[in-house]
Amino acid sequence: MKLFNTLVCLFLVAVLFTASSCKKDKQISCMVKTVRAGSNTFIFEFDASGYETKRTDSATGDYDLTTVSGNLLARQSYNSGGVANGSPHYSVINSAGLIIQGIESDTTFITYDSNGQITKTTKGSGANVTGWTDYTNENGNVITSVQHNASGSITHSTTVDYYTDKPNKSNLSLIYSFLSDARSGKATKNLIKKVTNSDGTAVNESIVTYTIDGNGYVTDFTILEQPANTLMTISITYNCN
Predict the structure, then answer these.
(1) Residue 93's closest CA among 196, 185, 166, 191?
(2) Domain range holding 119?
(3) For 214, left (φ over 0), alpha (ψ -120 to 50), or beta?
(4) Is 15 within the bounds of a domain?
(5) What is the pLDDT of residue 22?
(6) Is residue 65 part of a domain?
(7) Radius of gyration of the chain measured on its C-alpha atoms
(8) Residue 182, pLDDT score
(9) For residue 33, what are the contacts with CB-CB under 8 A and spacing of at least 6?
(10) Based on the structure, what is the number of domains in the chain?
């Protein structure tokens, strides 16, 4: 599993904003309100613990709902009229609310370190393992991921560079195929500067720049994809109190 399927997905659907800041002795707490990428704008809702409960496409009115029953998390898509689209996607969560097993056609198991950051994902189990990805964390940041196939050969590698002077106050999180918020583990300490992906033959880079408001929250960021030389800008608004 790749660390980043695309950087657009990374930031668009994997954001949890529970950070706060002090300004003039007032505690400011913000949660994400909207995320806009190109012509697409999504509206987010969260529960009291800061986990995403609903995501709505502002253009179509279609939405995704996330519910939890015991240790089972379900995500179901609906059209604007409230009719379910397909079947829900299920995951198993641990006592901390983190996803430890994605229940799909190829079940994925996830492990974390003592800080709540992801260290490994494994597709399948026992003799039926079809591949796995190892993640290296350093100083609160995920710096590498290495994807292996069933025989252990490396099929994809990712290296991540960070702005060490820019804390990730907005808690921009990682994204995996069956995850959509901070249930995928603790966000990185710093904001991502560059992501380098290699499949053994081709190397692609994604370079990220940010606009940060006076409270330290990211309001806009731009992703430059190389060598394609394509540019994408993503904007975020917040509800603060």
Answers:
(1) 185
(2) 7-49+113-240
(3) alpha
(4) yes
(5) 38
(6) no
(7) 18
(8) 74
(9) 43, 44, 237, 238, 239
(10) 1
Instruction: Report if residue 211 sits inside a domain.
Output: yes
List 157's β-bridge partners, or say none. 146, 198
Asked if the structure places residue 63 within a domain, the reply is no
Phi (first) and psi of residue 12, to 5 degrees: -70, -45
pLDDT of residue 72: 96
Adjacent-strand bridge partners of 192: 162
Name the stretches of the chain with pLDDT < 50. 1-25, 175-180
User: What is the pTM for the complete model shown?
Assistant: 0.84
Place of tokens 């660390």: 3
**What's the CA dihedral at 73, 69, 72, 33 to 10 degrees?**
20
Return all residues near 40 (Cβ < 8 A) that are at least 6 apart.
12, 57, 59
- Residues 77, 89: contact at Cβ < 8 Å? no
- Tokens for 214? 């006076």
220 within 8 A of 235, measured Cβ to Cβ: yes
